[in-house]
């Protein structure tokens, strides 16, 4: 005897209170289980950027300081360390000038410390007419080198 298959009866009991038409479909995106938390401090990337910029700024400041240092401590010597070409500024150590204006003046340079001997004559001009320099005066002497003799052309007494 063949048994007749019984069709399973579906339950008339509803599984959910919502109707099928109002239920959402299953094609929606799944919810994120863990949300990304925003850190309270700086991120690693921004910290690296800030450190890089700070290192560049510090490097530029050090470079500028080194360049400025050379300017203050290195003395550039022109004209053998004197005031100008054919000019010496210093202290008159001795002066032997006759009535006609001929004679010699010894000047110790303030810059180099060397003692120069200048020969004076009729063509020597002074900033104060009629007053010759004496020992102890500060004077700036302009001169011409004539065959090894330093002939004073203008003496400015200060």
Furnish the topology, listing elements before pairings.
Layout: H1 44-73, E1 87-97, E2 103-109, E3 115-120, E4 125-126, E5 138-146, E6 149-157
Parallel strand pairs: 4-6
Antiparallel strand pairs: 1-2, 1-5, 2-3, 5-6
Describe the model.
The protein is of the alpha+beta class and 158 residues long. Among the domains are: 43-74; 82-157, Copper binding periplasmic protein CusF (OB fold (Dihydrolipoamide Acetyltransferase, E2P), Beta Barrel). It is 19% helix and 28% strand. Strands 3-2-1-5-6-4 form a six-stranded mixed beta sheet, with no helix packed on it. Strand 1 and strand 2 (103-109) form a beta hairpin. The protein is rod-shaped, with a radius of gyration of 51 Å. The N and C termini lie far apart (149 Å).
Quick take:
With 158 residues, this protein is an alpha+beta fold. Helices cover 19% and strands 28% of the residues. β5 (138-146) and β6 (149-157) form a beta hairpin.
